[in-house]
Amino acid sequence: MIRLAMFLWLTGQAATADSAQQHMLAGLEARKQHQVDLEITEFRKAIDADPNSAAAFAQLGAAYMEKRDYASAISSAKRALELNPELVIADQVLGYALLAQGYAAEAIPHLQRAGAQDALGIAQIQTGQLTDAVANFTVVIAQRPNDPDVLYYLGHASGLLSKSAIDTLLAHYPDSARAHQALAENYFVLRQMPQAEKEYEEALRLRPDLPGLHLELGQVYANSAQWLKAEEEFRAEIKLQPGSAEAAYRLGSALLQQGKPHEAHMELERADRLKADMPETLYALGKAASLDGDVVTAEKAWTKVVELEKTTSLAAQAHFGLAGLYRKQGKSAQAQHEMQEFQKLQSTIGPPRSE
Amino acid sequence: MFRRFSRRDFLGSAVFAAASPIFEVKALRGVNFLLQNSPTTHKYLIETMPGGVALLDYNNDGLLDIFFVNGGKIAGALRAPENFERNDPRYWNRLYRQNRDGSFTDVTQAAGLGNAGSGNYGMGVAIGDYDNDGYPDIYVTNYGKNILYHNNGDGTFTDVTAKAGVATGGWGVSSGFFDYDNDGHLDLFVTRYMEWDADHNKICGGEWHTYCPPAEFPATTNVLYRNRGDGTFEDVSKKSGIAAKKGRALGVAFADYDEDGFTDIFVSNDGMQQYLYHNNGDGTFKECALEAGLALTADGKGLSGMGTVFQDYDNDGRPDVLVTVLPRELYALYHNDGDGSFTYKSLEAGLGTLTSGSSGWGVGFEDFDNDGWKDLFVAQSHVLDNVEKIDASLRYKELPLLALNHQGRFERADSGITTPLAARGAAFGDINNDGWIDVVVSTLGGPPVLLLNRGGGDNHWLSITLRGTRSNRDGYGARVSVNGQTRFASSAGSYICANDKRLHFGLGSTEKASVEVLWPSGAKQLLNDVRANQFLEVREPERP
Q1: Domain identity same for A47 and A82
Q2: Structure-derived torsion over alpha carbons of residues A81, A87, A89, A90, reported in degrees to the nearest 10
Q3: Is B542's pLDDT higher than 50?
Q4: Nearest-angstrom CA–CA distance, A343 and A345
Q5: Is there a contact between B493 and B310 (Cβ–Cβ < 8 Å)?
Q6: What is the rounded distance in angstroms from the CA atom of residue B292 to the CA atom of residue B170?
Q7: What is the CATH number of the domain that holds A86?
Q8: Which of B290, B300, B348 lies at the smallest CB-CB distance from A259?
Q9: Are residues A105 and A160 in the same domain?
């Protein structure tokens, strides 16, 4: 009798399991067909057939996510985790649903367990865990380098982290060189050059050997057309960092601006040696070499710019430079070709306009 | 033995090192002109563009007189057809006659130059003796209709615009007389800025309402009038090829850059490429700036071209071009290479350090220190009167730029002006006939400023007045060389201004000069052993 009862119970269990499995499959098929309501119905039937199926609850939660019914998704996913705390898909659904509802802190452990780094990064931004967010998005961007959302969030997180760090710096170390540097950079962006200059000078007074300060102060002077002062600062930076290609490029440009083509030529060649194939350096080198009478270097530099840049405005400028160079050499056909290339690019990137 | 270095020696050397400014800044005695540009919150672009200044001797008494172009009244929102209340004396153009004592007398009303037309907002002025009667005539450009005033020779002028057929219409800016066909009659070139009227104004700027950039409005054509020699002009803009290209022209200057005997035209355009009209010698022109290398910067970028000058700055005998522009560009200096092409030389000439933060309008290459090299003067001020709110690194009012020419390289010098100005026009000439070039600068909403050259020093000079016979009477278009320096006779150039037509040469320490004049007629004249420090009239031989 007991055996019979046991047999009947086991047979019933097997029938229930078969039924739950069938509804699960039907639910997944409905998902493929984007029939969300049918999906929900099938997963519910699966749960009715097997109320202890963590997988069915998890899939039902996922279906509610598709329907943007986050409250129901949370409830289903929580039940799934009660039934099976190791079920990763349930963590994933719960993490996304909580995040969508604005419960970022609660979402984080679930997203961590689910390995959902993009959503985790967003949750971390919302909870102020900016360092972790940047770290997560740095991983994600390596996998999806062209995803606009990831690019946005990486930039956003980095910006917030940067602001937070600077706020801390200014609040706790207002008299430090770095605080003055940070203020100076801010003034520079706002084009408030006298204030930027003052802050850089203070930073330099406090830490005269801090790399980058002279370079940035030089750029303040360059922006205010004080080229001689800019030159002095770039030279000071080079004294500190002789291997800085940027400092060499900036110095070369300042010398060029002052009408010192030979010195500019030499410095820009040095910049090119320190860091090859930088289009801006090569363009400026071409210009300085051309003014210095070294047409071979000018041609080489501008040709390289065209190779590197192809269709940018810098490439257009290089074509224009080459056209002038060839015209002065009496190479009419080449000059004409370069001018045509210049005009072709201008027609695609816009007519020549003042800055 | 070494002589002990005394305190007096020290003071002497200190005084030498701290040289006095070239100019003394003076008010023009008897001149009460105020340039009424009427700035409004509507930011109509015309408001920031006047006002012309002309230095001319209208009564042939040997003293330079001054003509000022006024803007007009804009009380609020404009509607076409606009009325700028030019019948109100506050908005008149003004002519001031110079008296023997250096003061000036307002002769506007007596001269018949009062009301400049109700729909006309004044811009610029050109001076030339278009009918070869020996008296300089005045052409005034306006937003509206331009006006030609014939000088009657008795202190009065007559508006002959309708008869002459030179009203143009649209937005006239710089203009100039020149003889493009070498027939001995001065023709007229008029630049026009853009197609704009009050009904088609735009609102520009974000938080701060600003004057719109030129690209917001359609480009337009320039106008060339051929002087028929009977007091009337023919509009030859189309058949000459001048109207084949539209632009946004603000400045014009003339010279024969390729020495083919025909005067060419350079036009500075705002926010785009510049135009060089080569005179083909058959009544037509070909715009060739791109091929000639002076359309764009060395980086292939357009320019916010405003004022321009077409003279030889490096004493190689060939006319070069300078264009004044907005900040973050450089005033563009194009060196004439003598093969029909030009090379951008702003950096080599030192303009990279002098001009990258400034906005330039009126401009001249004049030898202010009489050392034999033409120096550079630029009237400066940003186009936007609220630029400081938009970009704290820029200034609306600026000091003018004075840069002395050291063998082709310019170095800043003290102009003597210590208060920044909203300067626009700059006209050059020897106002007090002392042999040193002076400058009159117009300022928006303010009185004109006279920069009187202090002179002094031992340098000599020579001032030449051309008297054409076969050529036009003013000798415009003649190439005059003195001791290795060259000037191209023209009163045009700068921005909306007309300069003293006399050709001024600094001679340095040389007391004698050799003068060569190549007239537009083709006649060549050579004068040797000409005494320095004099005003010399050179009359063209009447026969070939």
Answers
A1: yes
A2: 0
A3: yes
A4: 5
A5: yes
A6: 30
A7: 1.25.40.10
A8: B348
A9: no
Task: Say if residue B300 is exposed, middle or buried (CB neighbours under 10 Å; 0-12, 13-18, 19+).
Answer: buried
Listed residue (B515, B526, B461) closest to B483, CA to CA? B515
Q: A46 with A63: CB under 8 angstroms?
A: no
State whether A24 and A110 are in the same domain: yes
| Whether residue A123 sits in one domain with residue A81 | no
Domain range for A73: 14-114
Å from B333 to nearest chain A CA?
Answer: 13
Nearest by CB to residue A351, choosing from B272, B329, B351, is: B272
ipTM greater than 0.95: no
Query: In B, which residues are within 8 Å of A320 by CB distance?
Result: 296, 299-300
Contact check, Cβ <8 Å, B271/A353: yes
**Cis bond upstream, residue B81 (ω within 30):** yes
**Pairing state of beta strands B375-380 and B360-366?**
antiparallel
Residue B189 and residue B171: Cα distance in Å, rounded? 14
Does residue A132 or residue A3 have the better pLDDT? A132
Closest by Cα among B464, B469, B457, B475 to B530:
B464
Domain boundary among the residues A76, A92, A114 is at A114
Same-domain pairing of A110 and A120? no
Is residue A2 pLDDT above 60, yes or no? no
Interval B312-327: pLDDT, tens: 999 999 999 999 999 9
Query: Residue B544 CA to chain centroid, in angstroms?
Result: 33
Rounded Cα distance, B166 and B130, in Å: 12
**Interface contact flag, B347 A256, Cβ < 8 Å:** yes
Is A146 among the domain residues? yes
Residue A162 in any domain: the answer is yes
The answer, yes or no, to whether residue A224 has pLDDT greater than 70, is: yes
Find where tokens 């290795």 sit: B484
Rg (CA), chain A: 32
Asked whether residue A167 is domain-assigned, the answer is: yes
Which pLDDT belongs to residue A338?
Answer: 97
Question: Taking the model in full, what pTM does it have?
Answer: 0.85
Residue B358 · residue B403 · CB < 8 Å: no
Instruction: Determine whether the interchain pair B299/A327 forms a contact, defined as Cβ–Cβ distance below 8 Å.
Output: no
State the pLDDT at residue A94.
Answer: 96
Which of A172, A198, A215 represents a domain boundary (last residue)?
A: A172
Give the tens place of pLDDT for each residue, A14-64: 556 688 899 999 999 999 999 999 999 999 999 999 999 999 999 999 999
Tally of domains in chain A: 2
Of A17-21, B297-301, B431-435, minimum mean pLDDT range: A17-21
| Rounded distance between C-alpha atoms, residue A142 and residue B531, angstroms | 82
Assigned domain for A32 exists? yes
A80 shares a domain with A44: yes
Among B290, B303, B349, the residue with its CB nearest the CB of A354 is: B303
Contacts of B348 in chain A (CB under 8 A): 259, 261, 291
Distance (Å, whole) CA A233 – CA A213? 9
The answer for residues whose C-beta is within 8 angstroms of residue B176's C-beta and 6 or more apart is B126, B128, B188, B189, B252, B253, B254, B490, B491, B492, B493, B498
Residues A61 and A84 in one domain: yes
Mean pLDDT of B245-254: 98
pLDDT tens figures, A333-344: 999 999 999 999
Q: Which of B348, B536, B505, B493 is nearest to B437 (CA)?
A: B505
A164, A94: one domain:
no
Coil, helix or strand at residue B311? strand
pLDDT per residue over B465-491, tens digit each? 999 999 999 999 999 999 999 999 999
Q: What is the pLDDT of residue A76?
A: 96
Sign of the CA dihedral running B513, B516, B519, B523: positive
C-beta of residue B505 within 8 angstroms of C-beta of residue B482: yes
Which of the pair, B202 or B376, is modelled with greater confidence?
Answer: B376
